[in-house]
């Protein structure tokens, strides 16, 4: 099976697609190298906000995945860029310490923030965090979601993700969050613009039926679903989303695209 016409660029999700629980998916490194050798430019497109872009790169390289910093497009980078474009300087960051580097040009102010940025706090989430954010939003702070992922796969199974806490804050405050990560059309478009290609010539590969496949399809690109990470057959069977192709893992991607 092959995907026709051949794409001019490939977007790759990371967690669940290139690696899983901090170990590379078998064949991932070979697949990435094969796409490069075929002349297809890559962007690693990730909703993770648990760490900075530089830390993500170090993790990839440590797993044997060849990547450069400018090939990584993360929600942290997207959020910081959006905040600065809006003239926002003071922020409350519901993010782990390891992710704060990407927001170094902004002032962290939990008392009078202009925006509350919600990301992957994981086990550190508490009532205090949510209530402080809730009060800031009621006082006029913008609510910014790095992503709306409902859950992700950890070493002990599927786990609540930031989207659940974004929804709680929206419900309590009556304020709709601004989404800066997948499946935001701007997120995909900015990544395509960085490669100087039309989004219609891009194939996005990921394990998330909604954020990866439906997200790219909504802006005119094509989506390939992998059966790794948080893939669930029952979700696919009950969904109205139809991937352009489904492969067992990223290891099968070169055969599909080349």
Question: In a nutshell, what does this entry contain?
Answer:
The protein has helices at residues 28-37, 53-62, 75-85, 127-138, 162-173, 185-195, 209-218, 233-238, 253-257; strands at 9-12, 19-20, 23-24, 42-46, 72-74, 90-94, 107-108, 115-118, 142-145, 151-154, 157-160, 178-179, 202-206, 222-226, 245-247. By secondary structure, the chain is of the alpha/beta class.
Notes on the protein architecture:
With 258 residues, this protein is α/β, with parallel strands linked by helices. The protein is 34% helix and 21% strand. The chain is built from nine helices and 15 strands. It has helices at residues 28-37, 53-62, 75-85, 127-138, 162-173, 185-195, 209-218, 233-238, 253-257, and strands spanning 9-12, 19-20, 23-24, 42-46, 72-74, 90-94, 107-108, 115-118, 142-145, 151-154, 157-160, 178-179, 202-206, 222-226, 245-247. The protein has a six-stranded parallel sheet with strand order 5-4-1-13-14-15, sandwiched between helices. Helix 4 crosses helix 5 (162-173). The longest helix has 12 residues, at 127-138. The radius of gyration is 18 Å and the shape is globular. The termini are close together. 46% of the residues are buried. The model has no long low-confidence stretch (mean pLDDT 95).
């Amino acid at each position: 099976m092959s995907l026709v016409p051949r794409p001019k660029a490939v977007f790759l999700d990371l967690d669940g697609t290139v690696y899983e629980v901090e170990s590379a998916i078998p064949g991932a490194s070979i697949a990435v190298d094969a796409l490069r050798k075929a002349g297809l430019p890559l962007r690693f497109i990730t909703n993770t906000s648990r760490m900075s872009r530089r830390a993500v790169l170090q993790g990839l390289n440590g797993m044997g995945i060849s990547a450069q910093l400018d090939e990584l497009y993360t929600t942290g980078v997207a959020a910081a860029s959006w905040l600065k474009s809006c003239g926002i300087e003071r922020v409350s960051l519901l993010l782990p310490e390891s992710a704060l580097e990407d927001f170094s040009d902004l002032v962290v102010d939990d008392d009078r923030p202009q925006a509350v940025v919600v990301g992957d706090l994981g086990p550190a989430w508490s009532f205090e965090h949510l209530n402080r954010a809730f009060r800031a939003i009621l006082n006029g702070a913008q609510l910014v979601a790095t992503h709306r992922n409902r859950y992700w796969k950890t070493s002990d199974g599927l786990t609540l993700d930031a989207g659940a806490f974004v929804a709680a804050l929206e419900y309590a405050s009556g304020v709709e969050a601004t989404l800066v990560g997948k499946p935001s059309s701007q997120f995909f478009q900015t990544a395509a613009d960085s490669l100087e290609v039309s989004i219609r010539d891009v194939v996005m590969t990921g394990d998330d039926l909604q954020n990866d496949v439906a997200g790219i399809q909504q802006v005119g690109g094509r989506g390939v679903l992998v059966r790794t990470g948080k893939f669930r057959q029952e979700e696919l069977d009950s969904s109205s989303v139809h991937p352009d192709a489904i492969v067992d893992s990223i290891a099968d991607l070169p055969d599909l695209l080349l």
